[in-house]
Amino acid sequence: AAPLRIGIAGYGNLGRGVAAAVGQNPDMELAGIFTRRSPAEITAPTPAVPVLPWDELLEHRDRVDVLILCGGSKADLPEHGPALAAHFTTVDSFDTHAKIPEYFAAVDASARAGGHTAIISVGWDPGMFSLNRLLGEALLPDGATYTFWGKGLSQGHSDAVRRVPGVAGAVQYTVPSDEAIAAVRSGRRPELTTRQKHTRECYVVLEDGADAAAVEQAIVTMPHYFADYDTTVRFISADELARDHATMPHGGFVIRSGSTGSGSSQVVEYRLDLGSNPEFTASVLVAYARAAARLNAGGQVGAKTVLDVPPGLLSPKSAEELRAELL
Ligand code: NDP
Questions:
Q1: What are 209-259's pLDDT values in tens digits?
Q2: If you measure from the C-alpha of residue 12 to the centroid of ligand 1, how many angstroms do you get, rounded to a whole number?
């Protein structure tokens, strides 16, 4: 069969991750990268891949089988998702959990009108974690679900620290509590407060003359972001920030702790330990792009989430091969 032609809309961390992930899937090829910046500013992953201006997207409709939307969830996707699903089969990583129903409805209406398929909120959370929460709850109805994040860099919390007066640069890591995880794994089903589940670690570069104690106080008492957590603040140099905190690790755990029949304890765990959050998220997006193309070929139009997609459609193998090898 002809390779699946993937387009990338937006070329940040996720967009670069998608380009790399497509390279690991022989049944796919990159049709083009679309950007709102000047294409001349951007280095293509290989010279054969065209970098094109965003306003030419629609001219390439017939050369792209699946368009992967790699814009930010806050400002980009609410606009790009509905607008582009009218013209392309799409996959995106919209991750504003509270707004997913509203976003789904908007994307669904335009995908249906255009006869396209759009898989939204693909990634790890939402995404693989959602799928594992669903499996846990469906298989073990008598139980409790726990999600822990980290150790990982949180973009939102890092931005919040950078806005504190006197801060020149900063990163924030979310760290799951070892004691809390051990208590959950034991099957005792503890009730855990926010403070008991995660701690927060900030690495901060001060502006010249800034008051370290005042900066620390402003961070640890910040409502919504830090006040409900035990937060540590470490002051480092700009060189240390650049040298030791440039990668984007993340991960976490979804644990379902339940009991069955005679009261037997059943604990199920899904764990991610990610060296690069955007590269893993991109790998998930690319597998779901394959599924999106197949759903569309089968006439299943409209918006979907990971919970609506049969897992066999993610694999490059046929259903027959999967039955022989994996069952
Ligand atoms: P980035 O900020 O790196 O990129 C977002 C967009 O910014 C790009 O598509 C790009 O569009 C634009 N951009 C503007 N200027 C620049 C520049 N100088 N360098 C790079 N990009 C630039 O975000 P990420 O790719 O890290 O993340 C995108 C979204 O993915 C996040 O908002 C998050 O919601 C989601 N996500 C979801 C996860 C999940 O598990 N579901 C996990 C991780 C992320 P253009 O090329 O058009 O300028």
A1: 999 999 999 999 999 999 999 999 999 999 999 999 999 999 999 999 999
A2: 5
ipTM of the complex: 0.97
To the nearest 10°, the Cα dihedral for 69, 70, 75, 76? -40
The pLDDT confidence band at residue 6, using thresholds 50, 70 and 90, is very high
> Is 150 near ligand 1, meaning CB less than 6 Å away?
no
Q: Which of 322, 305, 302, 311 is nearest to 109 (CA)?
A: 302
**What are the CA-CA distances from residue 47 to residues 2, 33, 43, 65 (Å)?**
21, 12, 8, 21
Whether the per-residue pLDDT at 1 is higher than 90: the answer is: no
Cα separation, 143 vs 141, in Å, equals: 6
| Ligand 1 mean position, distance from CA 92 (Å) | 11
Atom 44, ligand 1: residue with shortest CA distance: 278
153 close to 161: Cβ distance less than 8 angstroms: no
Query: Which value, in Å, is the radius of gyration of the alpha carbons in the chain?
Result: 22
Give the Cα separation of 42 and 10 in Å (integer): 11
**pTM to 2 decimal places:** 0.95
Q: Given ligand 1 and candidates 95, 100, 103, 279, which is best to mutate, with the most ligand atoms within 8 Å of its CB?
A: 95
Please indicate whether residue 22, judged by its CB atom, sits closer than 6 Å to ligand 1.
Answer: no
Measure the CA–CA gap between 160 and 172, rounded to whole angstroms.
9
- How far apart, in whole angstroms, are the C-alpha atoms of residue 187 and residue 193? 17
